[in-house]
Design goal:
Layout: H1 16-88, E1 157-158, E2 210-211, H2 246-249, E3 265-267, E4 272-275, E5 283-292, E6 299-302, E7 308-312, E8 317-321, E9 327-331, E10 344-349, E11 355-360, E12 365-369, E13 374-379, E14 386-391, E15 397-402, E16 406-411, E17 416-422, E18 427-432, E19 438-443, E20 448-452, E21 458-462, E22 472-477, E23 483-488, E24 492-499, E25 511-519, E26 525-530, E27 537-541, E28 545-549, E29 556-561, E30 567-572, E31 578-583, E32 587-595
Antiparallel strand pairs: 1-2, 3-4, 4-29, 5-32, 6-7, 7-8, 8-9, 10-11, 11-12, 12-13, 14-15, 15-16, 16-17, 18-19, 19-20, 20-21, 22-23, 23-24, 24-25, 26-27, 27-28, 28-29, 30-31, 31-32
Length: about 600
C-alpha cells in the first residue's frame, strides 16, 4: 500500500515541466521590460526633439522681437526728428492743442492714499496732488530703450497697500491712465486745504506710493519741455540781456535747438544740452555712464571721495564705480518678503565711505557695511515712509525725514534715536550743515525749517512773502553753511541766507531771508544741490531737465535733456567735475562738467 512515499529512496521526481514554465514567464517579463525600455527611449527622443523645436521657435521669436525693436526705434527716431523739424519751421507744436496753461496750479495736499511721486514720474496725463488730471494730451512717439520698455504706460507710482502714508500725490480720474491704478481720493475742503492731522489708520496721510515699472514717458518731445518757434519779437536768441526779464531768459526749454549756433548747443546719441544765449558760456558737459536699472531710480548720492555713486530703487540699493560705471555692490535685505514693492527713497554714504544708509517705504533705516554687504545698524521708530537721509560729517549722526511729520536724529555709536523734531506736515527732505551744527528740512507746508542739532531748538523758519508757494521737496546747504537752497513744486529754486547767532551771544535772534529766486523750470523742481565749492546750483525737474544756475546772479547757464522721464534726484560729486542724475525712466546717469574752452 502506498503511504505517500515519492518513490524509492534517493530518487527525485521529474521537474522538467515546472522549470520550463518558469523560464517562459521570465522570458515574457524580459520581453515586456525590453519593450518598455524601447518605448522610454523613443519617448525621450520625442521629448528631446520637441525641446529642440521649442528652442528653435523661441530663437525665431527673439530674433523677430529684436527686429521689431530696431524697426520701432528707427521709426521713433524719425518721428521725433520730423517733429523737431516741424516745430523749427513754425508748425504746430506738441502742445498746440492746449488752450490754457500747460501745467496745473500748484497742488493742494489732501489726506488719503494718493502719493508724492505718482504723476511726478509721469510725463503727461497727470494732475497735481488733490487735483483731477489735466486734459489729456496726444501721445507722443518715443520711449525707453527697447530692452527696458514694458507693455504699459509711463512709469508712475501706484499707491501701495500698507501702513498710513503722508504725502499728497497725483489723483487719477475715474479710470486708470496709461497703466496707472487710481486710488480713491478724498474730497478736498474749500480753498484746497487738506483736512486736519489724522492719526494712524488703515490708510493714513497720503505718502509717496510705490513706483511702478512701466515704460517711460516719450522722448525727446515732452509736454513739459516744448520747443516751439518763438514769436517774431522773441525769436532772436541773442537779444540784449536788459531787454528780457531774468525769469524769461532762464526758460531754456523754449529755445529752438535747431536755430541755435553750434557753440550754444551740444548733442549726444540720446541727450542734448542748450546753453543760455543771454549769458557767457563757461561750462561744457558730457555723458560718462548710463546705468540701467530694473525700476525707477529714486535717489543718487556720491561717496565723499567721489569714487562711488549709490542709487536707490525697488527693494535694493546699488553702488557703482564712477570711473568705470561698473556695479560694485548690490545691497538687499534678504530677510524681507519678496511680495510687492519696497522702494529705497534715500541713500547716503558715511563720510569714511565704509557704510551706506538707506531709507525705505517700510519705515526702517538700514546702515550697511559695504565691504561685507551686511546690515550693521537698523533704526526703527518712524511711523511713515522715510523719504530723506543725511549723514553728518562727523560720521556719527544720521538725520531722517518722514511722512510722519518728523525729523529724527540717530546716533550710530549708541544705536539710539537722540532727537525727534515734530512739525505740522510731512517732511520731504533733510540736510545737515557742513559743520554738523544744524539740520534743515523741507515740508509739504511750503516752508524750510532749521534746527540746532545739540538742543533741538528751532533756529529759523524760512517762509512768508518771499518764500515758496508750494511744497518743498529738496534742500541742500552751501559748502559755507551760511546759505541753503530749496526746490519746490512751485517750479522755483530759492537761495536763503542764514544768520545764526553765535552761542556766545545769548538771546540773539536768528534770521533767514530769501536772497535769490531761480525761475526757469517748466515743472516741479524735485531735487537741488550745490557743487562742492558753491560755484553752481544744480537742479532736476519733472520737466525732465537738469539745469545749472549761477548762484550769484540767478542766471541759468545750461539745460541738459537726456532722461525720458522726471529727473527725481541730482547729486554733484564732492570731488568736483562730476554729477549724477536719477530718473523715472529707470536709469541713473553720470555726467562730467568742466570749463568751456571753445570759441
Amino acid at each position: 500500500m502506498n503511504h505517500g512515499y515519492p518513490g524509492p529512496r534517493g530518487v527525485v521526481p521529474p521537474v522538467g515541466a515546472p522549470t520550463q514554465r518558469l523560464n517562459e514567464l521570465l522570458d515574457q517579463v524580459r520581453a515586456e521590460f525590453e519593450s518598455e525600455a524601447q518605448r522610454s527611449v523613443e519617448y525621450e527622443s520625442t521629448i528631446t526633439r520637441h525641446i529642440q523645436e521649442i528652442e528653435m521657435i523661441r530663437g525665431k521669436v527673439y530674433a523677430l522681437e529684436q527686429q521689431h525693436v530696431q524697426i520701432k526705434a528707427k521709426y521713433e527716431d524719425e518721428i521725433a526728428r520730423l517733429q523737431r523739424e516741424l516745430e523749427a519751421r513754425g508748425g504746430p507744436s506738441q502742445n498746440s492743442q492746449h488752450h490754457g496753461p500747460s501745467q496745473p496750479q500748484p497742488p493742494s495736499i489732501g489726506h488719503g492714499p494718493s502719493n508724492l511721486f505718482g504723476g511726478i514720474m509721469a510725463g503727461n496725463n497727470q494732475g497735481g496732488p488733490g487735483l483731477v488730471p489735466p486734459p489729456q494730451e496726444p501721445q507722443q512717439p518715443g520711449g525707453l530703450p527697447p530692452h527696458l520698455a514694458g507693455p504699459q504706460g509711463p512709469p508712475g507710482l501706484n499707491p501701495a497697500p500698507g501702513p498710513p502714508q503722508h504725502f499728497g500725490g497725483y489723483q487719477q480720474g475715474p479710470s486708470a491712465v496709461n497703466g496707472y491704478g487710481q486710488p480713491p481720493q478724498p474730497t478736498a475742503s474749500p480753498g484746497g486745504k487738506r483736512p486736519g492731522p489724522g492719526g494712524p489708520g488703515p490708510r493714513g496721510p497720503p505718502g509717496p506710493a510705490t513706483p511702478q515699472q512701466n515704460s517711460a514717458a516719450p522722448y525727446p518731445g515732452s509736454p513739459q519741455v516744448p520747443r516751439p518757434t518763438p514769436p517774431p519779437h522773441q525769436h532772436s536768441a541773442l537779444m540784449a540781456p536788459n531787454q528780457v526779464p531774468l525769469s524769461q531768459s532762464n526758460i531754456l526749454a523754449d529755445l529752438d535747438i535747431e536755430s541755435l549756433p553750434d557753440n550754444l548747443k551740444k548733442e549726444g546719441t540720446d541727450w542734448f544740452a542748450v546753453f543760455n544765449p543771454r549769458a557767457r558760456r563757461v561750462l561744457d558737459v558730457e555723458l560718462i555712464h548710463n546705468l540701467p536699472h530694473q525700476s525707477v531710480v529714486c535717489c543718487v548720492r556720491f561717496s565723499l571721495d567721489g569714487r562711488f555713486v549709490a542709487t536707490g530703487c525697488n527693494r535694493s540699493a546699488q553702488i557703482f564705480d564712477v570711473e568705470t560705471g561698473s556695479p560694485v555692490a548690490h545691497l538687499q535685505d534678504g530677510s524681507l518678503s519678496e511680495d510687492g514693492d519696497l522702494y529705497i527713497r534715500s541713500v547716503c554714504f558715511s563720510p569714511n565711505g565704509a557704510y551706506l544708509a538707506t531709507g525705505a517705504e517700510d519705515k526702517v533705516i538700514r546702515v550697511w557695511d559695504i565691504a561685507s554687504r551686511q546690515i550693521k545698524h537698523q533704526f526703527t521708530g518712524h511711523e511713515q515712509d522715510i523719504y530723506s537721509l543725511d549723514f553728518a560729517r562727523n560720521g556719527r549722526i544720521i538725520a531722517s525725514g518722514s511722512g510722519d511729520r518728523s525729523v529724527r536724529l540717530w546716533d550710530l555709536e549708541t544705536n539710539q534715536q537722540v532727537l525727534n523734531l515734530s512739525i505740522e506736515d510731512g517732511v520731504t527732505t533733510v540736510a545737515i550743515s557742513p559743520d554738523n551744527r544744524f539740520v534743515a528740512a523741507g515740508s509739504l507746508d511750503k516752508s524750510v525749517r532749521v534746527w540746532d542739532v545739540l538742543t533741538g531748538n528751532l533756529v529759523v523758519r524760512l517762509e512768508g512773502e518771499h518764500g515758496h508757494k508750494d511744497s518743498v521737496y529738496s534742500v541742500a546747504f552751501a559748502p559755507s553753511g551760511d546759505r541753503l537752497v530749496s526746490g519746490s513744486l512751485d517750479k522755483t529754486i530759492k537761495m536763503w541766507e542764514l544768520t545764526t547767532p553765535s552761542r556766545m551771544v545769548p538771546g540773539a535772534a536768528p534770521t533767514g531771508k530769501c536772497i535769490r529766486t531761480f525761475e526757469g523750470h517748466k515743472d516741479f523742481v524735485l531735487s537741488v544741490a550745490l557743487t562742492p565749492h558753491g560755484d553752481w546750483v544744480l537742479s532736476g525737474s519733472k520737466d525732465r531737465g537738469v539745469q545749472f544756475w549761477d548762484p550769484h546772479t540767478g542766471v541759468a547757464q545750461l539745460m541738459l535733456q537726456g532722461h525720458k522721464n522726471s529727473v527725481i534726484s541730482v547729486a554733484p560729486s564732492p570731488a568736483g567735475g562730476i554729477f549724477a542724475t536719477g530718473s523715472g525712466d529707470m536709469r541713473a546717469r553720470i555726467w562730467r562738467f568742466e570749463r568751456y574752452t571753445g570759441p
